[in-house]
Amino acid sequence: MSVLRFPPGAIDALDHRRRCFLWSGEDSVSGAQCLVAWERPCQPKEQGGLGIKDLTTQNTSLLLKLLHRLYHPGDSAWGAGCAPKLIWSLCKATSFWLDRWCTAGRFADLFPLLFTHVVDEEASVAAVVQNGLANQLVPRLTRAAREEVQDRIQCRSNLFRKGIVEDVACAICGGNEDCDHVVLSCPFATQVRRGLGAGTEGVSAKTIWTVVRPTTIASKHYDCFLLLVCWMLWKHRNGVVFNSESPSLARFWRSCRDEARLWGHRLPPQDREVAEAWCCVFSST
Ligand SMILES: [Zn+2]
Q1: Averaged pLDDT score across all residues of the chain
Q2: 64 CA → ligand 1 middle, Å
Q3: Domain locations in the chain?
Q4: Which of 186, 200, 202, 252 has the smallest set of CB atoms within 10 Å of its CB?
Q5: In this structure, how many other beta carbons lie within 10 angstroms of the beta carbon of residue 15?
Q6: How far, in Å, is the centroid of ligand 1 from the Cα of 184?
Q7: Reverse transcriptase zinc-binding domain: from which residue to which, for each copy (predicted)?
Q8: Entry pTM
């Protein structure tokens, strides 16, 4: 009773047994044998009852006592040893993102965008506490961006080579859409480059890392910044191709800002201001 909350049915069964003992001394008792309502003998003696404990109240009180010991263990073996172990084992068995262990709801539902960057969706609460939330989030998009740089993305020239599309025309400008075009030479990408003040002369997609850093961008995590812009150019292009969206610089910068805020969670805590600075650049461009 001091460890588990008794179900109402169990309390009723115990009360029945106690009523039988009190009024008949047998295994059963009829209503006629009960001289007063059960609540009456449950009253304290000084109030005219027999001081029989109310089991529901007793159960709740004992559980609260256990909880109190957890925070103030003193000499209690339970508070000092058992309870932390029990809680830790529960943490190990509970999914940080998918289980509803917080009253506000499942973290996967509360933070859907962040959830898309999670490494291990099944990570336990214990794993997140031990390793830190930052280690649960990876630059998942980095791989796509890296593929972009390595000319493996499914731009139209690649799809044309595979016989999937009939032409190589860029959906934004009508030019020959290869990897270089998407991130560098498409007029839309050129506007982005001008907006950032980045020097891309002599740069190809494979050497995107050599893009001259604008003075407004911090040197720290600059490679990450380049990946972010490349990735957003690719996403913008996909929006035009697959969702029939119109090319829009304003929408592009907005998306960059939102994405930068998200990517900031993957940077070490002391470097978060770098991502905030990116957001400011995207907002003012
Ligand atoms: Zn183009």
Answers
A1: 86
A2: 67
A3: 8-136, 140-284
A4: 202
A5: 16
A6: 9
A7: 136-192
A8: 0.52
